From TrEMBL:
It comes from the Bacteria. The keyword Transcription does not apply. This is Copper chaperone PCu(A)C. Keywords: Signal.
């Protein structure tokens, strides 16, 4: 019995050490949408890569550039696309979740100052396990002419 408990604790410690040496998520292709100077909202987009064998959940985000950051998605209701706040964004084990126009994204609400093209916006992601990921994302227009109203 003691041997099984020791093995279980060893596995837990090993898992924690691996997690500590490899980031819980890898963030790629991130940017904040350029908006007119009078806009009070913007959105952040990125790809979240999970290199681990278990899912990872993004549950909160903050930024000094805005009063609030919310996790959002788009859903179709009676033929009309609507944005909805959600509680979490899951990144599957060994998978990728895309935050993109017309889909999952981060809403920056109550911008504290106008965003300038190519400036860097700091965003902090909080995962369900309490891990924090610090990002510095460039401000740029959405490519491909997507019309994504907020």
């Amino acid at each position: 019995m003691l041997k099984h408990i020791t093995l279980a604790l060893s596995a837990l410690v090993f898992t924690s050490l691996v997690w500590a040496h490899q980031p819980p998520l890898e963030v790629q292709h991130g940017f904040v949408r350029a908006v007119p100077p009078t806009s009070e909202v913007s959105a952040a987009f990125m790809q979240l890569h999970n290199p681990h064998d278990r899912p990872v959940r993004l549950v909160h985000a903050t930024s000094p550039a805005s009063e609030v950051v919310e996790l959002h998605t788009h859903t179709q209701v009676d033929g009309v696309m609507q944005m909805r706040r959600i509680d979490a964004i899951e990144v599957p084990a060994q998978g990728v979740t895309h935050l993109q126009p017309g889909g999952l994204h981060l809403m920056l609400i109550g911008l504290k100052q106008p965003l300038r093209r190519d400036q860097q916006v700091e965003i902090q992601l909080e995962l369900e396990d309490g891990s924090l990921i610090e990002l510095s994302l460039p401000v740029r227009p959405v490519e491909g002419g997507h019309r994504h109203q907020h």
